[in-house]
């Protein structure tokens, strides 16, 4: 039978990546390449919509970008000089084709396609209001709420309708839309989710991360500002500011895990930030040891920083098999128990008889940490000390990241000492919240006016959780699990 790999359900998952290009003769091919670079943000479905000046062309598919958008025949069907794309990670249940983005609708003004990274926190409330008004929903994504709000808006241009719709929603969003021979990018007023602007020749690009610009040879222009709307059309690039300015709260977990290490976020190299996090971690939680070993691949930059600061040698003591996907065949219980070795294997020569510092980016449920520590001990480690390059994840995220309910988060249930005993480590330490902020070039967390969204660590939610807090909205958690993306 097919089952989820044991390592895949114990990580926080960024749910979506978005990409848009305007004025390019091979818009579909460029979009497919951009989505390849953003594959880490969503692996279960992908879609591209293009416009050729008269008609829209749409391709949605389950699975990864390379499995669906690498053939010339598929790209040839997606004709046009403008296009947008989306990669999606579904949080629970089956991923179904009707939920794959970009969503497409026919309005009075013509076709409209929309791709969304983030999560709306009043989507259920708005959805119920729209259903009572007669709207028929075709998906379970919160993104479709925006489409219906635009459809029911007062008459106006596509920009006017989009602004009116977004003024009614709460939540985190980076949106890319395609309509009336234009590509539109919008970032929520707090700037929780990333969005960048780039240029390749005479063409302009909007996408989630700079690594998607690199793959197509585009130059980084700038970050889209929180609350800013960028319009790409035949007359160039236009910047609109339709929302009241607010204090920005970019998601700090982008630096810890979500973004690709070769991306630049808000002016900071993600790779360098992760190394600095490791250095701060070493300063805060030093331990006598013989070797620093990362849990691949996300723990590598932090482990490099930890080793550099502590003076303890860095070694690849765990080797990852890069040819294991999200699912694999487990015909028997015996094979299931060996499943951990399909993705990671201990490098015994680097471990046997040594005191080991294991560096990982986070602990969610703890299942991965248990398996990794067991594997390292079986390889002969005399001691295993776990060091985590994020503070304890004790709260759920409602802004576009897949997290379990807080009752299932190990840090919500146990103290750090209890967590160490649970996962089988000789010691366990997390970077402090102030140490994390220092690593991203802040003096520390400003508790009165936090510089980032860190709700998964602190429970300080900067955007109202209206669906969660509204009396009678009992199906919120179920809907939210289906709707994210």
From TrEMBL:
Keyword hit for Nucleotide-binding: no
PROSITE patterns per the UniProt record, alphabetical: GATASE_TYPE_2
Domain named Glutamine amidotransferase type-2: residues: 16-235
Cofactor: [4Fe-4S] cluster; Mg(2+)
Active site (record annotation): 16
Molecular function in Gene Ontology: amidophosphoribosyltransferase activity
Amino acids binding Mg(2+): 298, 360-361
Cofactor note: Binds 1 [4Fe-4S] cluster per subunit.
A Pfam family hit: Pribosyltran
InterPro entries named among the record's database cross-references: GATase_2_dom, Ntn_hydrolases_N, PRTase-like, PRTase_dom, PurF, PurF_N
EC number(s) per entry: 2.4.2.14
Catalyzed chemical reaction(s): 5-phospho-beta-D-ribosylamine + L-glutamate + diphosphate = 5-phospho-alpha-D-ribose 1-diphosphate + L-glutamine + H2O
Annotated metabolic or biological route of this protein: Purine metabolism; IMP biosynthesis via de novo pathway; N(1)-(5-phospho-D-ribosyl)glycinamide from 5-phospho-alpha-D-ribose 1-diphosphate: step 1/2
Keywords: 4Fe-4S, Glutamine amidotransferase, Glycosyltransferase, Iron, Iron-sulfur, Magnesium, Metal-binding, Purine biosynthesis, Transferase
Record has Secreted as a keyword: no
Domain of life assignment: Bacteria
Binding residues annotated for [4Fe-4S] cluster, in chain numbering: 251, 397, 453, 456
Its job: Catalyzes the formation of phosphoribosylamine from phosphoribosylpyrophosphate (PRPP) and glutamine.
Similarity comment text for this entry: In the C-terminal section; belongs to the purine/pyrimidine phosphoribosyltransferase family.
HAMAP family in the record: PurF (MF_01931)
Name this protein carries in UniProt: Amidophosphoribosyltransferase
Species in which this protein is naturally found: Skermanella cutis
């Amino acid at each position: 039978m097919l089952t989820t790999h044991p390592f895949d359900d114990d990580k926080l998952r960024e749910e979506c990546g978005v990409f848009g290009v305007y004025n390019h003769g091979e818009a579909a091919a460029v979009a497919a390449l951009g989505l390849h670079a953003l594959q880490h943000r969503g692996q279960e479905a992908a879609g591209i919509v293009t416009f050729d000046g008269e008609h829209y062309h749409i391709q949605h598919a389950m699975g990864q970008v390379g499995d669906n958008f690498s053939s010339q025949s598929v790209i040839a069907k997606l004709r046009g000089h403008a296009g947008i794309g989306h990669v999606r990670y579904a949080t629970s249940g089956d991923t179904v084709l009707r939920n794959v983005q970009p969503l497409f609708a026919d309005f009075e003004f013509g076709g409209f396609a929309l791709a969304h990274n983030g999560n709306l926190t009043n989507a259920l409330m708005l959805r119920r209001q729209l259903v009572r008004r007669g709207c028929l929903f075709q998906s379970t994504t919160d993104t479709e709420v925006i489409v219906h709000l635009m459809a029911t808006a007062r008459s106006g241009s596509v920009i006017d309708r989009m602004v009116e719709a977004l003024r009614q929603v709460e939540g985190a969003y980076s949106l890319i839309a395609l309509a009336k021979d234009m590509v539109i990018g919008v970032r929520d007023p707090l700037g929780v989710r990333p969005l960048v602007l780039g240029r390749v020749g005479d063409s302009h690009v909007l996408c989630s991360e700079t690594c998607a610009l690199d793959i197509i040879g585009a130059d980084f222009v700038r970050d889209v500002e929180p609350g800013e709307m960028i319009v790409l059309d035949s007359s160039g690039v236009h910047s609109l500011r339709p929302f009241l300015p607010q204090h920005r709260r970019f998601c700090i977990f982008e630096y810890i895990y979500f973004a690709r290490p070769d991306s630049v976020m808000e002016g900071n190299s993600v790779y360098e930030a992760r190394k600095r996090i490791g250095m701060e971690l070493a300063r805060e939680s030093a331990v006598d040891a013989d070797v620093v070993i990362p849990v691949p691949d996300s723990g590598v930059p932090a482990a490099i920083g930890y080793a550099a600061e502590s003076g303890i040698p860095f070694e690849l003591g765990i080797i990852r098999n890069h040819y294991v996907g999200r699912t694999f065949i487990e015909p028997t219980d015996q094979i299931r128990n060996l499943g951990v070795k399909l993705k990671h294997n201990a490098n015994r020569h680097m471990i046997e008889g040594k005191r080991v510092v294991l560096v990982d980016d986070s602990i969610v449920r703890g299942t991965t940490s248990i398996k990794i520590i067991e594997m390292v001990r079986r390889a002969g480690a005399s001691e295993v000390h776990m060091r985590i390059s994020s503070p304890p994840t004790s709260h759920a995220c409602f802004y576009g990241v897949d997290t379990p309910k807080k009752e299932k988060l190990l840090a919500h249930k146990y103290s750090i000492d209890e967590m160490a005993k649970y996962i089988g480590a000789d010691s366990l330490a997390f970077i402090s919240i102030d140490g994390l902020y220092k690593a991203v070039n802040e003096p520390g967390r400003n508790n009165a006016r936090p510089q980032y969204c860190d709700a998964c660590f602190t429970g300080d939610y900067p955007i109202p959780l209206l669906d969660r807090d509204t009396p009678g909205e009992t199906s919120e958690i179920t809907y939210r699990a289906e709707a994210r993306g």
